[in-house]
Each structure stands twice: as C-alpha cells, then as structure tokens.
Design goal:
Number of strands: 0
Keywords: Membrane, Transmembrane, Transmembrane helix
InterPro entries: VanZ-like
Structural class: mainly alpha
Low-confidence stretches: none
Distance between the termini: 19 Å
Number of helices: 4
Protein name: VanZ-like domain-containing protein
Mean pLDDT: 88
Pfam families: VanZ
Shape: elongated
Order of helices and strands: HHHH
Organism: Snodgrassella alvi
C-alpha cells in the first residue's frame, strides 16, 4: 500500500489556493462593509473548506488514506496563526469567530472527503 503523497494536480491546486489565501487574508484590504451580515465568516468558511478539500482530494485521488488527524491539526494551527497574524501585523482584526468559521470549513471538507473515500472503497469491494 502506498503511503507517500507525490505531487499531483490536486496538490498543485492546493498550493495555489494556499498562496491566494495568504494574499486575501493578509495583504488585501477589507474594503467596504459587506451587504450581508457576517459575510466575512462565510468567506473564511469557504476559504478553509476549499483548502482542506483540495488537500484531501490530493490524497484520495492518489489512492492514499486521508490523514485526518494531520490535516485537522494543520487546520487548527493555520486558523490560529492566520488570526494572530491578522491581529498583530495587518490592518485587519483577529477574531475568534473567524477561526471558528475556518475550522468549521476545514472539518466539513475533511468529513465529506472521508465519506466519499469510504464509499468508494466499499463500492470497489462490493464489485468483487
């Protein structure tokens, strides 16, 4: 059984997504107030959902088991770090609710990816 993730298109997209998230979280100004209350929380949720979906997709498209614990720990570290950086070094504010939205997006992506991977494995076993 393979255990090492090699470079694939999903990993490349995840890297590009991560670099884009750095830009949007730290360098792009927040601009005008959003027309939808708590729209920034939706953006945080989607940003982390996309990031961790792409990482999980890189694993299961390579036929590897998704390292749920590793990716969840990475999500926690990245959410906390991004909010601390925003609070200390940018014109934005660090917000615990943003971190909760971040983690909610990551957790949903990892859960969904795990469900798909499990269904695919069970489906392939039933064929034989």
């Amino acid at each position: 059984m393979k255990t090492t993730l090699y470079f694939n298109k999903w990993l490349l997209i995840a890297i590009v997504w991560f670099l884009a998230s750095i830009y949007f979280l730290f360098f792009k100004s927040s601009g005008n107030p959003m027309p939808i209350p708590q729209f920034d929380k939706i953006c945080h949720f989607c940003l982390f959902f996309g990031q961790f979906w792409l990482l999980a997709k890189a694993y299961f498209s390579a036929g590897l088991t998704i390292p749920q614990r590793l990716l969840l720990i990475s999500a926690i570290i990245w959410a906390a770090t991004s909010e601390i950086i925003q609070a200390l070094f940018t014109t934005r504010n660090g917000d615990i609710m943003d971190a909760i939205a971040d983690l909610s997006g990551a957790i949903l992506a990892l859960w969904l990816a795990q469900q798909i991977q499990t269904a695919r494995r069970n489906g392939s076993r039933e064929k034989y």
